[in-house]
């Protein structure tokens, strides 16, 4: 006699099946990427429900991202008919929110409590400091924010923080005052969500016992990335044997992969895995070694790469899938060229009937997404950005755009309200109300009502209006780039975010806005010959390979009523509005997936592009100085590679316009850590060096970026678009020292030639038009005898 095998388990390998059907005891599943950890966890829930060991209300499952939680519920409802909506499946923050909403009275919160994001939190702290006359030189608000968030992550209230010196005492005092203010206003920050729900269960015996009785099974995915408080929080729901707070009958089922621990910078403790095994006396530890996700070329690349890390628990992964396509490597001249290449490859994949949602573009930091977004948008390819707002929807960008809109139209009340006190300039809610009253009574805009507001309120708001007037005046006749830079500086936006603890990324995004404007101007052809540039094409962000836009995004044609031409600023603002509006319409569509590597954790796609593989970017410059940082970057790269099922593309660019600067980048060291037999270089070797270039930056690139092992013979890519045949003639016909003639600029002398084929360009000193870089594939240069 053998018991009937549940169809849920029949498709699993023996280790997976064993994990799914473990008795209701604590267990750790430690296994590499794509080995089915999440599938095992989900199947275990289904199996527990199906075998009647527990009802839907008795299960709690914690995932890392909202997307992962959604996927888990979808998979679960496909496995068996169960109302997943009522089940406790979600992220830590999501479940904390749920708990606090359910017991808001016990947690001493109003039913309608609001959640502060990190930005709101900082403004709250600033307001507090002002009110208490805190010297912000001695106690910068962002430092206080860091102090408070750090304490909360450690599970410490103000009274619990050891105050050894005067300074800490003051910070602790402010921490207490901040908590009081939040309490008064009915708001909680992210750290508070976690800490408040932790305390709720810790201090409320009846409630804790209720949940401990209720959740017979607590399952947690991505366990390697839990921090101290999260682990402590879990322990309250299912306490380990012999630990004060309950006898603990709920079984904890933790799955994780130490090689995918990528949140150490936020306090994640891989050590929680070892603590868990010890504290819970875990008897069931299961390893899964079969990878079901990726073809072996991709898996080999991942295994080889992570083998360079020293601190590992050590696991093996194998696959029965065939070798599959090789991993394709592309080198681009510029980030624009990279994005263009990406678009061509994606189009080809779509032609091969790969669903767009099975194509993911991954990058190390959010600021990289803009160039990709623009290229996809221009190509008419629907896309969706995860783990971050779309570029033009980001708060800091919207603030900047609000200033720009006010320059165009002072009567734009929405923009007025958005920035009248942002960055904070001491204009209180009362003053704004007063202004709104006056405007309402007079039936005019806020801007026009300002002169009617008296007293201190009038002075403060008048100051803001005067500031706007200065910006408007100075923008007259200025280029779009200059206007934006002026606004970023003069409004105080850049300075404001520089002061913020987590403001670096916002500063970078604002600098990206300048880049966005520049390339917009270039594409729209506002007063410029697209083939002729005053500096090198890359530093101007122009891709010499890019085909001209078929349809302009915003129409710079003369206005029908006035005959006036739309200013670059007005055109850019409508571009920003249209682009974000248009994309909303694509929300439900089959769309290319864009996200950071962090946001891609746990997900999988048929085709994955990892872009920007350059030293300083990936591995990130902040993490390159020590071994721990570098190992974390390598784990991140391991996560990125292992997202791909069938096709993986890696790309790097020689130059990148990032944070308002052109960077000349070496290709990532990770390329040297991948096995050559898995790779296929799409770029002809001759384009990888930069022959004939004198500048030190380029020379350095060549010396350090050149691969030491022999280059594989370049073979044409499997699609023409990805590997244009080299055209040596065009680049070499024009040589340094030659006298040339250009239709528009007349006669000149060639100073230098760089690149090859379609990338070839020449620096020409024209007799009447100064020195320019010209893309030889676009500009017609005729040698003069
Ligand atoms: P990661 O570490 O990236 O989170 P994971 O270990 O959680 O990966 P899953 O996402 O659960 O892996 O599984 C990877 C892929 O392999 C999924 O598409 C899953 O459906 C598939 N898979 C897992 N186990 C099997 C199996 N026994 N037979 C067929 N496919 C499987
Ligand atoms: Mg997983």
TrEMBL record:
What are the UniProt keywords, alphabetically? ATP-binding, DNA-binding, Helicase, Hydrolase, Isomerase, Nucleotide-binding
Task: Please name the top-level EC class of this enzyme.
Answer: isomerase
Could you tell me the EC number(s) of this protein? 5.6.2.4
- Where ATP binds, per the record, is at 31-38
Annotated UvrD-like helicase ATP-binding domain residues: 10-295
Catalytic activity, reaction form:
ATP + H2O = ADP + phosphate + H(+); Couples ATP hydrolysis with the unwinding of duplex DNA by translocating in the 3'-5' direction
* Disordered: annotated segments: 699-728
UvrD-like helicase C-terminal domain residues are 296-602
Q: Which SUPFAM superfamilies match?
A: P-loop containing nucleoside triphosphate hydrolases
Gene Ontology CC annotations of this record: cytosol; DNA helicase complex
* Record GO biological process: recombinational repair
- Could you state a single Gene Ontology molecular function term? ATP binding
Q: State the family named in the UniProt similarity comment for this chain.
A: Belongs to the helicase family. UvrD subfamily.
Which protein is depicted? DNA 3'-5' helicase
Q: Which organism is it from?
A: Hydrogenophaga crocea
């Amino acid at each position: 006699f053998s018991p009937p095998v549940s169809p849920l388990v029949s498709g699993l390998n023996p280790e997976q099946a064993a994990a799914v059907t473990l008795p209701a005891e604590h267990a750790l599943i430690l296994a590499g990427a794509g080995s089915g950890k999440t599938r095992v966890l989900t199947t275990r829930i289904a199996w527990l429900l199906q075998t009647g060991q527990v009802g839907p209300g008795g299960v709690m499952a914690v995932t890392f991202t909202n997307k992962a939680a959604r996927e888990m519920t979808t998979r679960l409802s496909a496995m068996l008919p169960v109302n997943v909506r009522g089940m406790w499946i979600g992220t830590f923050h999501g479940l904390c929110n749920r708990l606090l909403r359910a017991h808001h009275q016990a947690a001493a919160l109003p039913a309608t409590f609001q959640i502060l994001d990190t930005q709101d939190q900082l403004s709250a702290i600033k307001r507090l400091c002002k009110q208490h006359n805190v010297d912000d030189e001695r106690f910068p608000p962002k430092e206080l924010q860091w102090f408070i968030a750090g304490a909360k992550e450690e599970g410490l209230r103000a009274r619990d923080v050891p105050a050894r010196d005067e300074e800490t005492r003051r910070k602790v005092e402010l921490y207490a005052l901040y908590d009081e203010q939040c309490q008064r206003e009915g708001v909680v920050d992210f750290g508070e969500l976690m800490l408040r729900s932790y305390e709720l269960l810790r201090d409320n015996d009846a409630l804790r016992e209720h949940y401990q009785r209720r959740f017979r099974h607590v399952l947690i995915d991505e366990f390697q990335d839990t921090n101290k408080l999260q682990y402590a929080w879990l322990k309250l729901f299912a306490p380990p044997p012999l630990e004060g707070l309950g006898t603990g009958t709920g079984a904890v089922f933790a799955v994780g992969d130490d090689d995918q621990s990528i949140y150490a910078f936020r306090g994640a403790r891989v050590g929680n895995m070892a603590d868990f095994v010890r504290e819970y006396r875990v008897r069931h530890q299961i390893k899964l070694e079969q990878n079901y996700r990726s073809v072996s070329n991709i898996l080999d690349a991942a295994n080889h790469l992570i083998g360079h890390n020293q601190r590992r628990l050590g696991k093996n992964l194998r696959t029965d899938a065939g070798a599959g396509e090789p991993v394709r490597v592309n080198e681009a001249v510029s980030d624009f060229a990279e994005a263009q290449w990406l678009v061509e490859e994606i189009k080809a994949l779509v032609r091969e009937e790969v669903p767009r949602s099975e194509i993911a573009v991954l990058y190390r930091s959010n600021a990289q997404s803009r160039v990709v977004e623009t290229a996809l948008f221009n190509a008419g390819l629907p896309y969706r950005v995860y783990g971050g707002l779309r570029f033009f929807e980001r708060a800091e960008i919207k603030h900047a755009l609000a200033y720009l809109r006010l320059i165009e139209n002072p009567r734009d009340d929405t923009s007025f309200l958005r920035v009248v006190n942002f960055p904070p300039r001491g204009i209180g809610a009362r003053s704004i109300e007063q202004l709104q009253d006056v405007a309402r009574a007079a039936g005019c805009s806020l801007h026009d009502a300002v002169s009617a507001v008296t007293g201190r309120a009038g002075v403060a708001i008048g100051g803001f209006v005067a500031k706007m007037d200065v910006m408007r005046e100075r923008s007259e006749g200025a280029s779009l780039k200059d206007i934006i830079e002026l606004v970023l500086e003069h409004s105080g936006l850049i300075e404001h975010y520089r002061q913020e603890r987590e403001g670096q990324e916002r500063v970078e995004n604002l600098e990206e806005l300048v880049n966005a404007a520049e390339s917009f101007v270039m594409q729209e052809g506002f007063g410029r010959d697209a083939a002729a540039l005053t500096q090198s094409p890359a530093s101007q962000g122009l891709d010499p390979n890019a085909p001209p836009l078929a349809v302009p995004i915003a129409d710079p044609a003369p206005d029908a009523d006035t005959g006036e031409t739309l200013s670059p600023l007005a055109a850019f603002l409508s571009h920003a509005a249209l682009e974000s509006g248009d994309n909303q319409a694509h929300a439900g569509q089959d769309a290319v997936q864009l996200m950071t590597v962090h946001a891609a954790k746990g997900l999988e796609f048929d085709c994955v592009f990892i872009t920007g593989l350059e030293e300083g970017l990936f591995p990130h410059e902040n993490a390159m100085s020590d071994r721990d940082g570098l190992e974390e970057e390598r784990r991140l790269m391991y996560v990125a590679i292992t997202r791909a099922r069938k096709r993986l593309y890696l790309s790097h660019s020689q130059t990148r316009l990032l944070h308002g600067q052109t960077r000349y980048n070496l290709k990532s060291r990770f390329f040297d850590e991948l096995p050559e037999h898995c790779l296929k270089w799409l770029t002809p070797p001759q384009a990888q060096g930069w022959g004939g270039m004198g500048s030190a930056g380029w020379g350095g690139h060549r010396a350090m970026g050149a691969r030491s092992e022999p280059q594989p013979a370049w073979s044409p890519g499997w699609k023409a678009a990805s590997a244009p045949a080299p055209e040596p003639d065009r680049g070499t016909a024009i040589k340094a020292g030659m006298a040339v003639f250009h239709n528009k600029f007349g006669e000149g002398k060639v100073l230098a030639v760089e690149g090859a084929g379609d990338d070839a360009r020449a620096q020409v000193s024209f007799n009447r038009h100064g020195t320019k870089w010209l893309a030889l594939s676009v500009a017609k240069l005729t040698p003069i005898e």
